[in-house]
Write a structure and sequence with these properties.
Organism: Hymenobacter volaticus
Pfam families: CCG
Oligomer: single chain
Strand content: 5-15%
CATH topology: Rossmann fold
Protein name: (Fe-S)-binding protein
InterPro entries: Cys_rich_dom (IPR004017)
Shape: globular
Radius of gyration: 14 Å
Distance between the termini: 23 Å
CATH architecture: 3-Layer(aba) Sandwich
Length: 124
């Protein structure tokens, strides 16, 4: 909407994969803009994971009502991210990141979650 395609002050080195949250993608149509902003950061490389548009398994009360399915969906998302060799899973959705991070920490997986706003605010 604003036409911003880069935040020159942003700093992050490494490889990332982007998780398209259900609400951002389906309800708001957000897909290209976050990738465009992240791709403009020097030293940050995007690696697309398989099924990047698939739900992470959180879905509000879904995670409570269907815990086993929710955890399995988080596991699948994290495994797809790890298969890329990425160091970070970046997304616009705090709930997704919280859900994935809980799985990552519990299973001691070698990947971190970051919110796109935190990445873009780095270096300020």
């Amino acid at each position: 909407m604003l036409g911003v395609t880069a935040i020159p002050q942003a700093r992050l080195q490494g490889r990332y994969t982007y998780h398209d949250s259900c609400s951002a993608l389906r309800e708001c149509g957000i897909k290209i803009a976050p990738r465009q902003l992240l791709d403009a950061i020097p030293g940050l490389e995007r690696l697309e994971m398989a099924e990047n548009e698939t739900c992470c398994g959180f879905g509000g009360t879904f995670a409570v009502k269907f815990e086993a399915i929710s955890v399995a969906m988080a596991e699948q998302k994290v495994e797809h991210a790890l298969a890329t060799g990425a160091e970070y899973i970046i997304s616009t959705d705090t709930s997704c990141l919280m859900h994935l991070d809980a799985y990552i920490r519990r299973e001691k997986k070698p990947i971190r979650t970051l919110h796109v706003a935190d990445v873009l605010a780095s270096g300020w």
